[in-house]
Amino acid sequence: MKIRTKIVLLFSIISTLLLVIFAIYVSYFTYDSLQTKFFHRLEENAVIVGDHIVHQKDENRALYIQVKRKYLKQLSEGTDHLIRVVKGSDRVQLRPELPMPKTFYADVIRHGKGRYMHGKTAFVAVFFQDHLHQENLIVVSEGIDDYGHDEQRQLDRTLITGGILAIFLIVLMSFYFADRLLKPIKDINNDLDKVDIAHLDHRLFSKFSNSKDELGVLIANLNSMLSRLDISVQSQQSFIGNASHSLKTPLTIIGGEAELAQQLLSKEHEAYYSLETIAKYADKMELIINNLLQLSRMGFKGEVDNKEIIRIDELLYEIYKAEKSIHKDLKLSFDLTEIPEDSDELTVLANPDLFFIAFSNIISNAFKYGNGLQVGVAISSDSKNITIKVFDQGIGIPKKDQPHIFTSFYRASNVGDIYGNGLGLVLAKNIFDLHGAELFLNSTEGQGTLVVVTIPKTPL
Predict the structure, then answer these.
(1) Spatial contact of 116 and 42, defined as CB atoms under 8 Å apart
(2) d(CA 210, CA 302)
(3) Mean of all residue pLDDT scores within the chain
(4) Domains along the chain?
(5) Residue 406 and residue 255: Cα distance in Å, rounded?
(6) Structure pTM?
(7) Going edge to edge, which strands form the sheet with 375-381?
(8) Of 376, 387, 402, which is closest to residue 455 (Cα–Cα)?
(9) What's the mean pLDDT in 105-128?
(10) Transmembrane ranges (predicted)?
(11) Considering just the CA atoms, what is the radius of gyration of the chain in Å?
(12) What are the beta bridge partners of residue 203?
């Protein structure tokens, strides 16, 4: 999950939970407040009714009528129940059919008043000491707070509607703020895409951050790292340029002088074969240096120059002729049964010198580790790719060594005295990677190795 999505979800969930909690809080305490006010109105009504009956005062009767008009018009199905109680006891005479439990009246007599809620109907009971009559009085006022319930429903609808609208706005705002928060990181990523081994002088910048915030410190650290890398790469490039001249020239002189001295001696001379060994290993050392320099240059540039349209079948035949001139006993067969009739279908856009090196290394390895048996090369083509397969029947590669075959200087454990430097496959793979091609290898120890190269076709 992307960071942007996580921010949006987290912000939306937290805000929604806070809104729900706030809405529940407002709804509950509004309900409690409306219910309390309604109980107060019922209690005032019960007090006035009780005073009217107990004292039989005319002024109370007028006030009773006035209050009834003021309050009871809001009490749907409101009614009053008069209950007589034997003085000195909590025994109720002629108890009406009300939903309250029997203990309710005893509590009212003991505490002077009581409240009870049955569904939407509220009951308030008030106890009166009646000195004009033989029995005391309990007045029970009953009513339904239609007005309060309407207010509650309207409030709940408002909270739900407002909550949905607020959640929608919160989600939109979370997307906006997530984009704003991640914009500096996006800028950094865009700038980093412009940085490669050939453009280490590029520096990062974001207008949405400053040098004092966390992103500003990150940008400063990345720029510092790029500066150090730039200095390091320049030093290595300088070393490679110097090494190219300083190492190759002496080796060329050594090899040339050894060959010249060899020509002046007869084969019977004891130094003849020593000079031959010196010349041979000077050539091999020069080949190793050339491979290392080529590998390093490709790594520094990160791209391929001097590309041109080449035909794969012709290139492979040129490699065969070159290898044959070096290894007279090379046995190589071409399988051309799957090539298309149109020769243009075998063309690719590539650097011919680099492809020559790559395929030459693969074919040379197939011969070198192939037990002197025939090496096969098969070429096929489809609508998108050209596939080249090189296979031998040699010693193969042990399974434990196969994960490391593309590591520089690594050699399989079963090569024995067969000469090699562990750079051929590495160099070939890097060349193909730079051209957008793919190299696969499948090998079984003691049976041989199959190398498959898939090259994208060049649109004509």
Answers:
(1) no
(2) 32
(3) 82
(4) 3-152 (no CATH), 214-299 (1.10.287.130), 308-456 (3.30.565.10)
(5) 30
(6) 0.49
(7) 332-338, 375-381, 385-391, 448-456, 438-444
(8) 387
(9) 89
(10) 7-31, 159-178
(11) 49
(12) none
Percent of the chain whose pLDDT exceeds 70: 86
d(CA 354, CA 352): 6
Whether the per-residue pLDDT at 71 is higher than 70: the answer is no
Other Cβ atoms within 10 Å of 375 Cβ, number: 24
d(CA 37, CA 31): 10
Joined together, the tokens standing for residue 184 give 């500096």
DSSP 345: G
DSSP state, 138?
A: E
Average pLDDT over residues 370-388: 90
Confidence class of residue 302 from pLDDT cuts 50, 70 and 90? low
Predicted local distance difference test score (pLDDT) of residue 210 = 67
Identify the burial level of 390 via C-beta atoms within 10 angstroms of its C-beta, where 0-12 means exposed, 13-18 middle and 19 or more buried: buried
Q: SS3 letters for the chain?
A: CCHHHHHHHHHHHHHHHHHHHHHHHHHHHHHHHHHHHHHHHHHHHHHHHHHHHHHCCHHHHHHHHHHHHHHHHHCEEEEEEEEEEECCCCCEECCCCCCCCHHHHHHHHHHCEEEEEECCEEEEEEEECCCCCCEEEEEEEEEECHHHHHHHHHHHHHHHHHHHHHHHHHHHHHHHHHHHHHHHHHHHHHHHHCCCCCCCCCCCCCCCCCCCCHHHHHHHHHHHHHHHHHHHHHHHHHHHHHHHHHHHHHHHHHHHHHHHHHHCCCCCCCCHHHHHHHHHHHHHHHHHHHHHHHHHHHHHHCCCCCCEEEEHHHHHHHHHHHHHHHCCCCCEEEEEEECCCCHHHHEEEECHHHHHHHHHHHHHHHHHCCCCCCEEEEEEECCCEEEEEEECCCCCCCCCCHHHCCCCCCCCCCCCCCCCCCCHHHHHHHHHHHCCCEEEEEEECCCEEEEEEEEECCCC
User: Tens digit of pLDDT for each residue in 173-198?
Assistant: 988 888 888 887 887 788 777 777 66
Distances (CA, A) of 222 to 182, 183, 192, 202, 352: 17, 17, 10, 11, 38
From CA 425, how far away is CA 415, in angstroms rounded?
15
449: enclosing H helix or E strand: strand 448-456
CB-based contact 365:426 (threshold 8 Å): no
Count CB neighbours of 53 within 10 A.
19
